[in-house]
Amino acid sequence: MENIFTDAYFMKKALQEAEIAFEKGEIPVGAIVVVDNRVIARTHNLTELLNDVTAHAEMQAITSSANFLGGKYLKDCTLYVTLEPCQMCAGALYWSQITKIVFGARDEHRGFMKMGTQLHPKTIVVGGIMENEASELMKRFFAKKRK
Amino acid sequence: MENIFTDAYFMKKALQEAEIAFEKGEIPVGAIVVVDNRVIARTHNLTELLNDVTAHAEMQAITSSANFLGGKYLKDCTLYVTLEPCQMCAGALYWSQITKIVFGARDEHRGFMKMGTQLHPKTIVVGGIMENEASELMKRFFAKKRK
């Protein structure tokens, strides 16, 4: 039997979160955290609503998952996020020792890879999952803003 | 007349916050944010109590200051923090466009300078203010933990 729990399956859920951010006028980035094929956190960017530069989807996902797990290390967790994490979020993921990060679109300017932010040596990174959908949503957001 | 509002004057207040963290069994790092010689935020590391790797003193100071100011950019603000910020906190400070960062002790291993994290080009950084007091407190903490 085919495994339905692919990276694309979970990234679609992260994209749904990004759509919610879009509707709120937030830069549309969504994230979910998965343990054993179970979603334990769903978050989206809230920097405008909360007036807080630290309210990226990933930061909320880390805090929320740690709350759920009752411990601050995100072992056996996978973060799905629609956009490549920034320095801050990658730095937080470093501390969390998260097992795996799957992201959608690259952030060529402010992504952690360009910026050289270090992740925990145990963390696996996969990029480009549903990147077209994620970057399409970002383009649509900024085109709407310019109008 | 001599200006009493020196960097050491404010760093002493950040050190008081670090002492509070110490008493709670947290890695003793404290921070304050100052605008026009007025303290608008006082925070200390709470990663153990909150079970949250993102609960560094600086992250809370950024959120708290933005709440106080009613805007997410920390213009005309100075952060005083007893230890050199990590990647995550430097990444958050980058987004905040904070005017000035003053830190106490260097973090040779996980500090943002060693890690190469980028701050906002407008941000001024001063290090080494009351560094002996700050690193003494850290040493005392880890010596106590080892016992």
From TrEMBL, chains A, B:
Keywords: Hydrolase, Metal-binding, tRNA processing, Zinc. InterPro entries: APOBEC/CMP_deaminase_Zn-bd (IPR016192), CMP_dCMP_dom (IPR002125), Cytidine_deaminase-like (IPR016193), MafB19-deam (IPR058535), tRNA_aden_deaminase (IPR028883). One of its GO terms (biological process) is tRNA wobble adenosine to inosine editing. The active site is at E58. Zn(2+) binds at H56, C86, C89. It catalyses: adenosine(34) in tRNA + H2O + H(+) = inosine(34) in tRNA + NH4(+). One of its GO terms (molecular function) is zinc ion binding. Its cofactor is Zn(2+). Its EC number is 3.5.4.33. Binds 1 zinc ion per subunit. Residues 5-114 form the CMP/dCMP-type deaminase domain. Catalyzes the deamination of adenosine to inosine at the wobble position 34 of tRNA(Arg2). Belongs to the cytidine and deoxycytidylate deaminase family. ADAT2 subfamily. Homodimer. This is tRNA-specific adenosine deaminase. The gene is tadA.
